Amino acid sequence: xxxxxxxxxxxxxxxxxxxxxxxxxxxxxxxxxxxxxxxxxxxxxxxxxxxxxxxxxxxxxxxxxxxxxxxxxxxxxxxxxxxxxxxxxxxxxxxxxxxxxxxxxxxxxxxxxxxxxxxxxxxxxxxxxxxxxxxxxxxxxxxxxxxxxxxxxxxxxxxxxxxxxxxxxxxxxxxxxxxxxxxxxxxxxxxxxxxxxxxxxxxxxx
Length: 206
Known about the structure:
- This protein is an alpha/beta fold and 206 residues long.
- Helices cover 36% and strands 27% of the residues.
- It has a single domain, classed as Rossmann fold (3-Layer(aba) Sandwich), CATH 3.40.50.150.
């Protein structure tokens, strides 16, 4: 792992993903989490202020990057949540079948190398009736924007930790065996359109 990936990239991701417009997106989904919760792609803990402590009995935080976990520690200490780290990739969640009530994924599916395998793991660990809460950026509905996303995707990924601009998030989640209880999509304000088309909501195993 180079110096850029190890030291600079985690801080750049924290800065970009901690912007006010992205934080407002987090506020739309994270407070709905209840019970035993698994967050995949925990990063530096930017979702922590939005969990409701009275609703969450335990938070499993899956984050393979030691640098990201170090950046998260002040937020973890201030959260008051019963948090336990998991450090394996999102494609191989180290929890038993039907062991969590809710899975939270925010700005994560764009980066996981095998997103379909990760969603299969989400389906496996959710209890019957459990929910997937998600907020992701991905493929835009406008052909001109999608062309730019396709052109920029490889270069973007090299500098953004493997992030993809052009994954169709709603079809990806549906293909993973989920049905949507809530689904919203829009371009975010004050965000480049090639990176600003967001998909968020709630889904259950269908």
